[in-house]
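Researcher: Structure prediction, please.
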Amino acid sequence: MSATSYDYAIIRVIPSLERGECLNVGVILFCRTRRFLGALIQVDQVRLRTIAPTLDIDALNEQLEHLSRVCHGDAESGPIGRLSQSERFHWLVAPRSTIIQTSPVHSGLCTSDPATTLHILMRKLVL
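Model: Predicted structure follows.
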């Protein structure tokens, strides 16, 4: 299998924009040539509580679940979920001023399938 390029961004929770502290909670990966758009999300609640003891974790998880639904194009994700993979990826990584933000988009090459690469990035950058 030949190498193919992909773009990815880290999903971060930034509970206090003023303090700038963040916790990596997920990864979004887009591989146009393999028609793959995927996201993995896992919140380490213990670590999050240390930097944001009053944060509403349930509300945060709802918002993260919505991002996941948009990524996968689920019917419940609304009009954004019906966009093309490319358009959804760009919507997901667009700059925001909320507590859930993404890193700048980075590029890479994968020699395996993009889903495996997504899992590798998740272990390396989040877990």
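Model: The longest helix spans residues 57-72.
Researcher: Thanks, that helps.
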